[in-house]
Amino acid sequence: NLGILAPDISASCLVYHAPSKTLYGHAAYGMTMPEPRRDLFMAYDLEKRQVLFSGGPADSCRRSIIVAPDGRAYIDDSKNKVFARYDPATRTMTNTTTAVPGNGQLRAASAPDTNGIVYAFSRDGVLFAFDTKTEKVTDLGWAFVQTQYITACKLDATGRYLYFVPGGHGGSGKIGSPVIQVDLITKQRKVIAFLSAYLHECK
Questions:
Q1: How far apart are CA 148 and CA 122, in angstroms?
Q2: What sign has the CA pseudo-torsion 163, 166, 172, 178?
Q3: pTM score
């Protein structure tokens, strides 16, 4: 039991950085939080059982965190539509000058590949690459269709293929719950399965 990391909040996203034994959390405020209510980014040391940082932008999508191999963490500042960076060396968070693609909100992100590249999605469905070494963004275009946003993605072990299922909050089932594979070298996308049809067949 790790206890309550912070009162009056609900952590909608948690990412673990194993080398530093740090758990990063991104949380939405609860109705019991005293005014002024705000979202929170947190860094928690699992070994020492202590909060290292709590704060960050007051307004964020609070659904995803990009974690670099060295432990730096990035979330979106929705108001300014840029990435905010947490530095574990100084335990501070500051805004970068790097704009978040699409509508300026980070919705889903993969783990970094061997070169430190993370593949991520904006809330309105733009796929992009984020270089954790340079903080440079490469826009890879719409992931699927603009009306379907992505809540989760997975990079394969080779770093060549990215997988995701478009549609959240029931939207995926309306389009057959397709599993989409992106070839990150050729940039080709293809549907490899329709999960809705498969699950109906299994009933």
A1: 11
A2: negative
A3: 0.90
